[in-house]
Prior knowledge:
It is a single chain. 39% of the residues lie in helices and 19% in strands. The chain is of the alpha/beta class. An eight-stranded mixed beta sheet has the order 1-2-4-3-5-6-7-8, sandwiched between helices. The longest helix is centred in the C-terminal third of the chain and has 21 residues. The radius of gyration is 19 Å and the shape is globular.
Amino acid sequence: MKKTVTLFLALFVAISFSFGSVDTVSIYSEAMHRNIKAIVIKPNNYKKSNQFPVVYLLHGAYCTYDNWIKKVPSFQKHADDYKMLIVCPDGANNSWYFDSPVDSAYRFETHVAREVPAFIDANYKTKKDRKFRAITGLSMGGHGAMFLAFRHSETFGACGSMSGALNVSEIRKGYDVPKRLGDTIINKTIYHDYSVLTVIEKYPKDSLAIIIDCGLQDFIIGMSKAAHDKMVRLKIPHDYIERPGKHDWFYWENAIQYQLLYFNNYFKKN
């Protein structure tokens, strides 16, 4: 019995030290005049090393900042494997990571692209250079990651999309897009300009490393295909992957592994 207890304790200690730690932080938004939460996952060597690259990981519609850690708690291990920080900001239920032109309470472009990285750099041991920051997300978060990276390439050096809803011009019912961008007819130009399919036309002078993936059975795979085809025409370098899967957590739990490997390889080159 004593040997069993000793073995259990040894195993518990080994597991405890094999994972980093998870912080829940509150970040004050000057743009929205309120505190907004985020999760920060630190690798297990955080105290021993000086600086780390950061991957910002965005959630989808009708979700919040803790969605990733609740749905895929095992992905915390990836922070250890790749010796990186993973930050999950809050994008509200359906902010689409826009600075809404019709609702000043939703300024999540400013928050996620500027306020959150500034807070993380000020409070954590990060490599403070765009070449060591990446941003990705699922569904609405896939759109948000691409949208923010192209518009804020001074902040992010790499971006990704998993099952991204990359054309908000096609999302006119549900998911609160009209609440963020206004009337679909009066503000038709805004819908066009705020879609990733339009944003990618202005490839930043500082090149971006880009990875897009989507499941073959995903009901919005056409948006990822359209973004891929357009970037091919525009000669924008990127990785594009299709694999079996639907618009669900089974797919995203698998996809995040490929995305983080891609970003880790990108960081190593810099």
